[in-house]
């Protein structure tokens, strides 16, 4: 165990996934969407308009099934046989681990922190996150689809507290969405707004010393 144990500021570190542990967001755009049309010949505008006008938000909290939604869209587009291909492309292209963030996770774990993922992903992608190995670094994975709650709902944070037995300033959220950071603070947690390449600031926020 690292000698940094006494420097850690929190007992639990809740890491957002997209844009934090996974470097798949650039200027607010998911990178898989920028190559989807070129690689598949299918319309990203049509898919995004269909999914992200409220349907995906329902899937995110377990009120709809992502595979069924994509299947309905593919049938509407006249390519029902390509529905699974769309999901596979999305998830595969979205796998861009942020190794600098994961290094912080490993160091925090070695120093005694409880690391968890706190994500607004639906159930299939939550399973995928674990299958891709992200869960190996974590005490638990809290996903909106499994919880039927999503950030910035304060009940989301209460659910995690109840599951772990830690509350308030014992917990810090690392997230790239300002509304989620503000909500966590309203709930009584510490929180840090993540931005690309601000890993040194994250390390300071959680109490890890600079590496030699």
From TrEMBL:
Keyword tags: Hydrolase
Top-level taxon of origin: Bacteria
Identification of the protein by name: HAD family hydrolase
GO molecular function (one): hydrolase activity
Signal peptide from the UniProt entry: none
UniProt-listed InterPro entries: HAD-like_sf (IPR036412), HAD-SF_hydro_IA (IPR006439), HAD_sf (IPR023214)
Keyword flag DNA-binding: no
């Amino acid at each position: 165990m690292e000698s940094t144990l006494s420097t850690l500021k929190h007992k639990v570190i809740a890491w957002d996934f997209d844009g934090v542990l996974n470097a798949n967001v650039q200027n607010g755009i998911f990178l898989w969407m920028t190559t989807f049309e070129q690689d598949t010949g299918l319309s990203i505008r049509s898919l995004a308009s269909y999914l992200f006008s409220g349907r995906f938000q329902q899937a995110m909290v377990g009120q709809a099934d992502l595979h069924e939604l994509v299947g309905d869209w593919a049938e509407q587009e006249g390519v029902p046989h390509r529905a699974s291909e769309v999901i596979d492309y999305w998830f595969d292209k979205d796998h861009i681990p942020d190794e600098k963030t994961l290094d912080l996770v490993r160091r925090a774990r070695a120093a005694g922190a409880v690391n968890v993922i706190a994500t607004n992903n639906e159930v299939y992608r939550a399973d995928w996150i674990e299958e891709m190995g992200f869960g190996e670094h974590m005490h638990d994975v809290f996903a909106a689809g499994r919880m039927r709650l999503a950030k910035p709902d304060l009940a989301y944070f209460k659910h995690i507290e109840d599951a772990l037995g830690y509350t308030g300033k014992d917990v810090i959220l690392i997230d790239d969405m300002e509304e989620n950071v503000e909500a966590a603070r309203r709930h009584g947690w510490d929180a840090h707004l993540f931005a690309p390449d601000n890993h040194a600031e994250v390390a300071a926020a959680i109490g890890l010393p600079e590496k030699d």
